[in-house]
Amino acid sequence: MSRAIGTFFYPMATSLKNLSSTANMSVPSAKGMHFAIVVSEWNTQITGALQKAAINSLLKHGAKAKNIVIRSVPGSFELSLGAQFAAQLEAIDAVICLGCVIQGETRHFDFICNAVANGITNVGLMYNKPVIFGVLTTNDLKQARERAGGKHGNKGDEAAITAIQMVALKRNIRK
What we know:
This protein has a single domain (35-174), classed as 3-Layer(aba) Sandwich (Rossmann fold), CATH 3.40.50. The chain has 5 helices and 8 strands. The protein has helices at 44-60, 79-87, 108-127, 141-146, 155-174, and strands at 2-5, 8-11, 35-40, 68-73, 94-102, 131-138, 148-150, 153-154.
C-alpha cells in the first residue's frame, strides 16, 4: 500500500516487512544504564511478547539484568501513573511503557489512547527522563500480533532501543 504526497509515492508503514529493524540506526551501549519497564496486564498475550523483546534488546545492547526493573499495571490507562512511580526513582534512567489497546465498537479506544499518550509524555517532561511510548494501538488482534513479534517486528524492541538512545542523548548533552 502506498500513499501519494504531491507527485511522490511513499509506502505506508504497514507495507514494510519489519518496522523494528535497527539496520540503519546507531545504537549506543546500554552499559551502566538503569531501566524500568512498566507493562500492562491487559492483552497479556501481546504485552508479554513486547516485554520479552524489550528485555532482550536491553541485554543485547549491554544493560545488566539487575539494572532492569519490571512492574505491572492492570491496563494501558494505568501506564502513566506506573511510569510516574518508576520515574520518581533517582536510579532509573528511563522508563519503558508497554501496552496494547485494540479498537472496539465504542469510542473508549480513542479516550484511552489519547490519555495514555498524553500521560506518558507528561511524566517524561515532569521528571526530565525518557519515558517511552511502547503502546500498540491497533484495529484488531491480528495487527497487534504482527507488531509484537510478527511480520512487522516487535514494538518492545523499538521501545528499548529508543530508551537507550534517549538516555545516551541526555548524557551526551550534559557533557
